[in-house]
Specification:
With 423 residues, this protein is of the alpha/beta class. It has 15 helices and 15 strands. It has two domains: 143 residues, Aspartate Aminotransferase, domain 1, CATH 3.90.1150.10; 241 residues, Aspartate Aminotransferase, domain 2 (3-Layer(aba) Sandwich), CATH 3.40.640. 43% of the residues lie in helices and 13% in strands. The strands form four sheets. Strands 4-10-9-8-7-5-6 form a seven-stranded mixed β-sheet, with helices on both faces. It binds pyridoxal-5'-phosphate (PLP). Its cofactor is pyridoxal 5'-phosphate.
Length: 423
């Protein structure tokens, strides 16, 4: 077969973009070469519907071992009692959980997208807001911290079946124990979606949701530094409290309902090449080397927040406990959209993001989100964060000046060349 130079040239262009830019998108990271190798392996050829030892296809003796290793490593990493590593993505993991525990029309209570939540937590444009009846809590305007009072009031008044915590753009710790205590008052389940801070939670740098939340979902590609994918976990298996029955009329333990909601509920064949890459990433995350890395991610985020504050930028909640922060541009006379575009021209990648109580649309926004997971994988330390913020500030102070942007772009190249990628 003739080599597909069209696609491989584009892949090389993307490698070049990643190598020469400053990657600050909070949901991205740089996986190891062995994660890429596993993801690009012959396991992509294999169908394996079902679970290890219980497949609907022959020839699964090898992939069974791969998937079992992924499950065992994930359990060890998070101290989980049960794990399903098959969800193709974070959104798929959340859809499987909702299929397992809810009926169409049931109420769910999630963190408002416009305050930092995720689409799959009840947004009207997503399945979660179309199939279920969404209710929301947000942050307190003055502090930028989760409005636990509103969460409790809404939960007690509306009695949702599921309370969802977790976010895409929230830089602070969560009070999982409090949310569980509210859920217990109304017989609701709690889902913690730890897609963003999963790596920090795995290494004990943030509170552990597993003892408090019935179900935990995560992506595997953000701070966890694995391939793109999702996963569902539980700290302990429990009986389905809503008495939901399987299509055969049986009442089953939650683990069985969740497994069935992944396959055949929402997916077909699992991606065993990606599951192998997840296993490799979990193996890496179990090492002390990863522990040092993820601690540095947090230290770098705190150093970056300090540097932004010193330059007069607002940060929602005033700082960060994890790997990301939401920069508030309302005092800077520039929109998130313009900031993202100008920074991109200087090879600095961020994403525009609404800030809580934003008066601008999601396409314009008054803020942007940054994270330190990717630049820390390149080896940057807290002493480099000042330089990073200086470069951003120079672009934003003069966002339409092409000369400034060109000068910053050259300095970005200089800076990142000291932290080579995939060499
Ligand atoms: N949940 C949260 C909190 C997220 O931030 C994201 C992705 O950004 C997802 C779920 C969805 O993950 P995916 O893009 O893999 O579907």
């Amino acid at each position: 077969m003739k080599r597909d130079t069209q696609i491989f040239d584009l892949i090389n262009q993307e490698l070049d973009r990643q190598e020469h830019g400053l990657e600050l998108i909070a949901s991205e990271n740089f996986v190891s070469k062995q994660v890429i190798e596993a993801a690009g392996s012959v396991l992509t050829n294999k169908y394996a519907e079902g679970l290890p030892g219980k497949r609907y296809y022959g020839g699964c003796q090898v992939v069974d071992q791969v998937e079992t290793l992924a499950i065992e490593r994930a359990k060890e990493l998070f101290g989980a009692a049960w794990v399903n590593v098959q969800p193709h993505s974070g959104a798929q993991a959340n859809s499987a959980v909702m299929l397992a525990v809810l009926q169409p029309g049931d109420k769910i209570l999630g963190f408002d997208l416009s305050h930092g939540g995720h689409l799959t937590h009840g947004s009207p444009v997503n399945f979660s807001g179309k199939l279920y009846q969404p209710l929301f809590y947000g942050v307190v305007k003055e502090t930028g911290l989760i409005d636990y009072k509103k969460l409790e009031e809404t939960a007690l008044a509306e009695k949702p079946k599921l309370i969802i915590c977790g976010a895409s753009a929230y830089s602070r710790e969560w009070d999982y124990a409090f949310i569980r205590s509210v859920a217990d008052k109304i017989g609701a389940l709690v889902l913690a979606d730890i897609s963003h801070p999963a790596g920090l939670i795995a290494k004990g740098l943030l509170a552990d949701p597993l003892p408090h939340c019935h179900i935990v979902t995560t992506t595997t590609h953000k701070t966890l530094r694995g391939p793109r994918g999702g996963m569902i976990m539980m700290g302990q298996d429990f009986e389905n409290p809503f008495g939901l029955k399987t299509p055969k009329g049986e009442t089953k333990m939650m683990s069985a309902l969740l497994d069935a909601a992944v396959f055949p509920g929402t997916q077909g064949g699992p991606l065993e090449h990606i599951i192998a890459a997840k296993a490799v990433a979990f193996g890496e995350a179990l090492t002390d080397e990863y522990g040092t890395y993820i601690k540095q991610v947090q230290t770098n985020a705190q150093a970056m927040a300090k540097a932004f504050l010193e330059k007069g930028y607002g940060i929602i909640s005033g700082g960060t406990d994890n790997h990301l922060m939401l920069i508030d541009l309302r005092n800077k006379n520039i929109t998130g959209k313009l900031a993202e575009n100008a920074l991109e021209k200087a090879d600095i990648t961020v994403n525009k993001n609404m800030v809580p109580f934003d008066d601008k649309s999601p396409f314009v926004t008054s803020g942007f989100r940054v994270g330190t997971a990717a630049i820390t994988s390149r080896g940057m330390k807290e002493s480099d964060m000042q330089a990073v913020v200086d470069l951003i500030d120079r672009v934003l102070a003069d966002a339409e000046n092409e000369e400034t942007i060109a000068a910053v772009r050259a300095e970005v190249r200089d800076l990142v060349s000291k932290f080579p990628l995939y060499k």
